Amino acid sequence: MDSAYGWLRRHKVQHASPGPQLLPDWNKSAGGIRAFYFRDPDGHALEVLSFPAGKGNPKWHRRSDKLFLGIDHTAIVISDTEASLQFYRDVLGMEVAGESENYGPEQERLNNVFGARLHITALRAAAGPGIEFLEYLAPRDGRPYPQDEKSNDLIHWQTRFLGISADQAAENLRKSRRTLISTGAIELPDGRAGFRKAVIVRDPDGHAVEVVEQ
Description:
The chain is of the alpha+beta class. It is built from four helices and twelve strands. The strands form three sheets. Strands 1, 2, 3 and 4 form a four-stranded antiparallel β-sheet that branches. 18% of the residues are buried.
């Protein structure tokens, strides 16, 4: 973490946390993890993590000559954990990999939110990065996702899922009364996007999710 933070500082990234934070040992799920939030050139929040022994995917503990090893998960702020589980677990088929309740001065500094108390839920699929729910139990004054957000807005951020059938995904999403961004399952015949067909939908809080078929 010290090397990663030094590298980011030398490249003058915008801090979202005052500096790396060591999460306390009383938190069985997150204790010993070091984390730092910063922003990309367009203001999107990014996090660099360092896992202690026994935590995180084993691949993050393998010896490597690289400073940054890969993407572990994406994190989204949600309003209600159960509602999000009904979408990501029950509709998209992810599995809950862990839960914790994080609070205290380290968490406040990490998120740069005074009085932060979060219910965190980690979800995983069979492969690839996971998704982490951040439900703020306090404070509860976070702004909702803009209802007029469009796919070409800088705030737009979508998570891609690899599925078997985009048509079936679109049908299941319609049946579960989810809000589609695309007009349905759209075919991209030239293959330049890296997939053949896709559908984009909003989760219960408005975050964009893309289901693609190769």
